[in-house]
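Figure S7 source data.
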Amino acid sequence: MKDKDYSRLFAEFEGVEADLIPVLVRIQERDGYISEEAVRRVSRFLRLSENQIYGVASFYPKFRFTEPGKKSIKVCMGTACHVRGGLFLSEAVGWQLGVGIGQTTADKRFDFQRAGCLGCCTLAPVVMVNEDVHSRMSVIRLKEILEKDD
Amino acid sequence: MISFETRREKARRKWDQLEHSKAPVIYIGSATCGRSAGALKVLQAVKETLKEHKLNAKIVQVGCIGPCYMEPLMDIRLADSPRICYANVNPQRARKIIESYLLKGNPLPELAVGHFGENGHPVTEGIPRFFEIPMLQPQVRLVLRNCGMIDPEDIDHYLANDGYQGLLDVLSQKPEEVIEIVKEAGLRGRGGAGFPTYRKWEICRSVPGDQKYMICNVSEGDPGAFMNRALIEGDPHCVLEGLMIASYAIGASHGYVYINSDYHLAIQRLRQAAEQMREYGLLGENILGTGFDFELTIKEGAGAFVCGEETALIGSVEGRRGMPRSRPPFPAVEGLFGKPTIINNVETLGTLPNIIRNGAAWYRGYGVKGNYGTKTFSLVGSVRRGGLIEVPLGTKLRRIIYDIGGGSWKPFKGVQTGGPSGGCLSEESLDIPVEYESMQAAGSIMGSGGMIIMDEDTCVVDLALYFLNFTQKESCGKCSPCRVGTWHMVTILDRIARGESDADDLAKLQTLAETAARASLCGLGQTAPNPVLTTLRHFRAEYLSHVQDKYCRAAVCRELVEYDIDPEKCNGCQRCIEICPTEAISGAKSELHRIDQLRCIKCKACYEVCRYDPLASDAIVIRSRRRAS
Ligand SMILES: Cc1cc2nc3c(=O)[nH]c(=O)nc-3n(C[C@H](O)[C@H](O)[C@H](O)COP(=O)(O)O)c2cc1C
Ligand code: FES
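Tokens for the predicted flavin mononucleotide complex:
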């Protein structure tokens, strides 16, 4: 990332401590994760120590510190999805891709996340692949999605 | 500058034109629930069909109207006819309906679920009124009145439907008078605890200080609830109008909306709404010439459950870890940036414009004494008709679950309300009315609106473990009763679910839960034991069968079930063998297959293939057997 990528992103903000979380949210939306470089830049912009930034960021389950894959697989772990078998889906992703929650496959094709309610409980269980929500999922359909090449 | 009156006149004309449009109008429900069911593909198909037949029609995207199980929803209104609603629309169906109705005048009553007009119009023959179908008939839509009806991205639609009238009304009154109306109406906080709204406001109002803050809480951390999101997606202006009314009442000139950053569509709608407000002179200095100044900040949170708690939320808005602090001082006295702050739930705020416009007495016409008005719920789980609903307080649970929800898929077991802070109620509690006090007396809570129906396929031990796992992870770690207590409860529940527990585990669990509830610092820890305490109270037999017989009736707890093949049914199709990740199943083509229990990891893949593959024959069963302990 270049200087101007950061200055453009920071331009939206005042540069006060209260901007920390929204700034991190924006960076994660752009890069998919919070890199060491991003922490350094934010530290200078908001005049907060890198430790403080890590302290805050690591408190929130949303933030990740490893590079994401090309496709993000988010399995809903909300209550409605849980009672309809969400846990099986999440395990299926695990053994199919060979990665744990929050990790990315070695070939960088997939990363694996869990989410709280995605707002479509009546269609449970659901899995989100990038921005697409797949509803009424089954272990089998999930396997098909993961094996599909594109 | 164009006056507000002129803008409103224009908005009304625009709405009127839409309502009496000569060209057909097609409404598509495209909130998050609709989108996940494929609403955007339907939208695409509608556009293509219109283009292909050179039809001129208006398309309006609306929010969630409630029956999410019917999504995607599409409504069509032709000139001088009522709006007709179609459910479970897919691209092919959308095309078929448009071709039939717009080209040939046949509305296909067999595909329609309801219409929004009066009965008696020729096109509505064979179609019921939408608000009279079983799921809608018992509901009263006050806060949701615009959801699914108007275009949430167009402030004119809101204005034409009495939008910002409530704000206009309060700006001509004294703040004390506004507080009095809200007191009179008996409004209680919809975020869960049901604290009288006026009382918080009064405290904040009476604290000296020229800078005060008003915060709208859209944290919605309950992992199984979406009411707040749906309201904002469907009618963002009603929440913002409420926020301004509340700000005026407490003397705040700066409002915050604290919203979960995963709520992309809701955030986008709020931002857009705020821009439109500014354009219409509803934000900034000297609003509508009344001398009231108001600024709005939309603040994205990073989705931690504890950030729904007021003091943690404030920490998060200030850019720190979302850790609660002990109270007093209450935020109403010392809150955001050290200034007096009031935090209200989305639905509480969304209700205010209605109350102001129609008066306190009108509001008290809904609900029962002490519990006035309506409450929204996300009715989900094993229920036939799930979705977003709104009912008057005092409605019996039975009416919600059976009349609105149509009952559970399999025999009913219980209902969970209030998410991780709430509890499970069984069949015996179904005749209690949904009121703050009665829900609490039954051991659960009203909560912010999550309502999950369980049938015999849900195991209560597993559900309690699910919630405790959640709160244990979400515990901020500041106080030990919560940090350590939740961890120990998880450990014991896990033992029970694995069939490794002994007789005193239930007593230990009970004591631990009671202690954590009493000794924790904030609401998270104080309520985290609820799922355990209520299931122990209402479903003790199910715990006992796990402990004594190592038996899970619902066949959910993994260590207590086995996968088996029914020899009568197995046709030897080998589909399960292909799918099994551990090569645990063997058998020749067309011969009985067997499962090697030592290799089986109980991943459910074979079970699903056996159910859904056309070649397979429903032979694989998951069952739990009683074992003597
Ligand atoms: C752990 C915890 C989580 C909470 N989550 C929410 C939430 O997601 N939304 C909400 O409105 N209130 C939540 N609350 C309640 C708020 O702290 C607060 O009472 C409420 O927003 C006040 O608004 P009301 O008076 O309008 O209900 C939560 C409380 C606790 C202890
Ligand atoms: S619980 Fe999964 S979408 Fe709501």
